[in-house]
């Protein structure tokens, strides 16, 4: 039957189960995971010039991760029952894993931060190494939450956890760049000129690293969309929803153009040595990733299942 | 007399008898105290074909009380669970209203009760079934298009209907093994191919709570 | 489950077994009903059984048997009554939503007296005593001219008590509104076979021809009829052929569907009859024995209606007409359906003819006589006063006492002076044609000096009253309810309060009794019953067999009774003939001839239709399965159907430059009504000539027709009917319902438009019935 001949005379609208709290939650865990990984890399490399970065990120990671679940609890219709998650856990539900990860990870993050600040290098390194998979899981599982909702075409792809992870790295680096730049500009006046030059260089390097991660992210997104467009009809609709439909302005305009292309140009183009441009790029990157969470979480639910 | 554990409840909806009257919808609103704005069951109606061979097709929709329910698999608190007789229920005291089951269900049949802040859905009127009654929608259906009963009992009307008719289920590819079967269900009405995305955007932003 | 059900059913005891005995002689459906588990309900949380009482639904004319389930004296659910012969445990959407009407937050719970001008909707609450006094004061001066008391109700047949009130006062003007529903059919059938109405034996038939009837959405016996029709089509493998101007739920279940030109089905029916006679497929023996015309005379009369002529008028091909006619005549039994109120009494007679010439009259599977107890009013019954021009309009000699549009016309034109108008269960400002002018009329106190509305709800009409008396809803009131039986076995049902009257509302029996006793002057002698039960006992006292079964107590317990010894007595005319002057089916009606109408069934074209210009379309207004005129205060129904966009065929829409969802204006042209009764457009208020709506493009409609659903677009009837959210804090305790705060459709879909607002009064000169589907309109996009 030709689709143009079909008229839906009556159906009902459905609630959007997952709202902005969830998108926000995904954004914050992403930020946290991203900064934690950078911190650990900095700690592991052990180079003196990385130390400030390692410290900033060590603090950021657990703080962000404590903000993240607040969103989750606020989203619960029965917030006072959050403890049911631990008492009545269900090992086939990704959320159960999430609840335990979300508990373990900040604790270890705090211990790690203490080690970093008290200059206990070895325990910090060990905790860091242990912590990276935890951080990856904590964020990766959010991708699984979406991917395991089988019927939602926009979510149900194997690439979803990876896309979430890579964009988490992007936004995490972006945040670190911003914080580091702010620190460099206003709060780090005591350092020597030489140290400041090194720090500056580091920020620029970090930003370039961010640009390469964005490329990886774009690659993943493009492949995901190509597959969507060629798979079954729900998937095609999902693809078209973000390419030409209601979510196109946010997806193409904010996530892709403002949040990916522009920052790449700013960071790799003629302004690559300009700290202001880099900071702008990093902020844009975060806006882009926030938009990505919105498009994925909300957009993914607007395709009706009935 | 069969024991509870050996029962396997199912519903068969004979679309050759359905007249799209919405009696089932209202029966459920009343029986389950389903608030306005949300629905545990509803009747989708489409039209297809050019004039003058246009026809209407109906599709009463409700929770399939799946044998392999994704909602149960994904519920983090075991608030959603499957009874021994196959009915999938939500424990209102345990549900934390994370809504992940709603996101997971391939059929859009769960909702948050705005007064109680817990997730609800059709549970084949377990309270009536347990009391030896038919589900409310089944009882009210003017044309007896809906039939409910035990698939494990060969003599039950559902078993006989299933044995003697070709039936289909919604989104078989989801492998949820629905226990709501349709006789002569229209393919277009049962797929969501014809959906017009714009129809839903209003709801999208309307339902946004942040 | 099935076996449990059977046991439960048997538990009903002796009465139950008696029922069972007869049911098994009836249609297999009745046996199925026996197995159906119903009549019980349990609390969702505790699982405890709920207490219950049987009663009757009056959300529409069907009068299905219901059971009200009660917890802590609150009605919590309405279910079907498994013992009811018509609907069993099944109940339509509206029946189940009746609970919304009972607890409508805007229900009137105390008598109201108008302050300010009529229609300003400003009221003072008054005591019942004061209300009765004021009405009595208005009635007393009319004692010398009792005809000035004009009582109007929706369906006079089902408002025996109202008629009693008017007659007791000495007024013949107890007026019903059949002219806006089935009047033409009633008159046509009465003239033809001596009984008002018909009852197709639908479950047992083999062939169904439907002309402008939509039983799967809007049969006068909706639930019971729909079930039997589906049984007929699915179990009995009956073939169904539908002629309609649009796609309906009935078409969906039909084997063949024809989009017929509006107003032309009579010629198709006559051409089919012609084919049947020509081909010799008619039942000559039946015609010769049971009609007052010979086969030969009939054949020569029908010869003028050739299939070709019918084809050019109706758009249905001659080949189809021939084939369907042949199939109909050679399949036995077969029946027709015609509930559409299209153009007149003659149409009904034309369709009936198909059953007559094939002998499908009162046989199993054919078109049966309506079997219904005809219960007189209780003794002492007031004598019927002499007819008045209002009760029996001179120009409608064959019509019943229910030609309300003509009555309104006489009142409007000041040809009949009203002293006190009582409207009971009747909302003409919304339901009648030309309701807008009726609103103007009701504001004029020289035409209607005093208007008393007896109603539970502030309808568009009640808003124009001087005094409003809060009657109970149907769920708190009493009545004896009879309907033509779908099983061909007459039955009696009871309507009794499933919950006590809320707050200060009173049943109509109480109100009528109190009024009669305050007015006195002799009328009180007809209202001396000790209780409403006493009165109802009087109405059923002569029914043989019921008293032995337990009389009213049986009804109170079971809700319904029929004589367990009765069987469907198909062919009852064989003993004693038909109730017509000739004792036969009057295909040739001398009574029609005497009044100057064609005595034989003919096709009367609506002239305006053949003259339709390029941009003129015919507006049809149809009923839906989820609303009637009086259900809009039920939020569960409004949530499903709250809007009624204008159906337009995409081809037509393209010509008019209209896209789906566009705002459109529908304007009635001055040519509406030509050939029916001329409508003097200049007399009408111009504001009621046009309406605004949105376009709904659908392939399911004739390109020359546009259609709108009935039942929405209220401008009164409380806030729910108007789609307003209600702040639950301000609602009286007994009516609270937090759901009313969630009403969403006004913002998101709209509340529709009342299409009847642009329909002028167009009366069939024979039956007096309103032509609802013959409005000529233009449709244009509203530029924004
Ligand atoms: N669910 C429900 N049931 C009801 C009611 C209700 O409102 N809702 N109302 C009750 C009442 S009071 C009544 S009187 C009955 C009415 O019962 P019906 O008369 O069956 O109902 P309608 O919808 O008014 O009209 C029937 C059909 O006639 C078609 N029609 C219109 N014009 C033409 C024409 O020119 N030619 C042909 N061939 N067809 C045409 C319409 O499209 C419509 O589908 O229903 C009763 N039952
Ligand atoms: N264009 C067009 N117009 C139509 C039709 C059509 O097909 N096309 N259909 C026509 C037909 S068939 C009909 S029957 C009429 C129906 O029109 P009406 O004869 O006006 O009948 P309703 O509006 O159904 O009910 C009358 C009033 O009953 C009152 N009421 C509701 N519930 C209760 C209760 O429980 N107790 C009491 N005491 N009162 C109650 C309310 O005040 C309600 O407004 O509309 C007609 N109008
Ligand atoms: S009640 Fe029965 S006939 Fe009516 S829509 Fe539901 S399934 Fe169909
Ligand atoms: S239909 Fe959805 S909610 Fe119902 S059991 Fe299946 S997966 Fe769960
Ligand atoms: S909302 Fe309730 S039932 Fe659904 S997944 Fe969460 S806890 Fe389970
Ligand atoms: S079985 Fe019960 S809960 Fe399920 S749709 Fe029917 S009435 Fe609603
Ligand atoms: S058909 Fe529906 S509204 Fe009419 S009497 Fe029956 S249950 Fe009530
Ligand atoms: Mo009617």
SSE layout:
The complex is a heterotrimer of chains A (306), B (210) and C (784).
Chain A lengths: L6 E4 L9 H26 L5 H25 L8 H4 L6 H24 L3 H27 L11 H29 L5 H38 L2 H11 L4 H21 L6 H28 L4
Chain B lengths: L8 E6 L8 H10 L8 E8 L6 E8 L7 H5 L5 E3 L5 E3 L9 H5 L6 E3 L4 E3 L5 H5 L5 H5 L5 E5 L6 H8 L2 E2 L11 E4 L3 H4 L7 H10 L3
Parallel strand pairs in B: 1-10
Antiparallel strand pairs in B: 1-8, 2-3, 4-5, 6-7, 9-10
Chain C lengths: L1 H9 L3 H12 L2 H8 L15 E6 L8 E7 L2 E7 L12 H4 L1 H5 L9 E3 L8 E3 L2 H12 L9 E5 L6 H10 L4 E2 L7 H11 L5 E2 L6 E5 L3 H4 L3 H13 L4 E6 L4 H4 L3 E4 L5 H14 L5 H7 L4 H8 L4 H8 L3 H13 L3 E4 L7 H13 L9 E2 L35 H9 L7 E5 L3 H4 L3 H9 L6 E5 L12 E3 L9 E3 L9 E5 L12 H12 L12 H9 L5 H4 L1 H8 L1 E3 L27 H5 L12 H4 L6 E6 L12 H6 L5 E3 L1 H7 L6 E6 L21 E8 L7 E5 L8 H4 L23 H4 L26 E7 L3
Parallel strand pairs in C: 6-7, 6-14, 9-10, 9-12, 10-11, 14-15, 15-16, 20-24, 21-23
Antiparallel strand pairs in C: 1-2, 2-3, 4-5, 4-16, 8-13, 17-18, 18-19, 20-25, 22-23, 22-25
Helix pairs in contact in C: 2-3, 6-21, 7-21, 8-17, 12-14, 12-15, 12-16, 12-17, 15-16
The site of one iron/sulfur cluster (SF4) has 13 residues of chain B, from helix 3.
Q: If you had to describe this structure to a student in words, what would you say it looks like?
A:
The complex is a heterotrimer of chains A (306), B (210) and C (784). Chain A has helices at residues 20-45, 51-75, 84-87, 94-117, 121-147, 159-187, 193-230, 233-243, 248-268, 275-302; one strand at 7-10. Chain A has 306 residues and is mostly helical. In chain A, helix 2 (51-75) runs antiparallel to helix 4. The longest helix of chain A is centred in the C-terminal third of the chain and has 38 residues, at 193-230. Chain A is globular and about 75 Å long. The longest helix of chain B has 10 residues, at 23-32. By secondary structure, chain B is of the alpha+beta class. Chain B is built from 8 helices and 10 strands. Chain C has 4 domains: 38-103 and 476-505 and 529-566, Phosphorylase Kinase, domain 1; 106-182 and 387-471 and 506-527, Rossmann fold, CATH 3.40.50; 199-368, Dimethylsulfoxide Reductase, domain 2; 607-781, Barwin-like endoglucanases (Beta Barrel). Helix content of chain C is 31%, strand content 15%. Chain C contains 30 helices and 25 strands. At the A-B interface, strand 1, helix 1, helix 4, helix 8 and helix 10 of A face strand 2, helix 2, helix 3 and helix 8 of B. Strand 1 (7-10) of chain A pairs antiparallel with strand 2 of chain B. The structure holds ligand MGD (2 copies), iron/sulfur cluster (5 copies) and molybdenum atom. One ligand MGD binds next to helix 9, strand 10 and strand 20 of chain C.
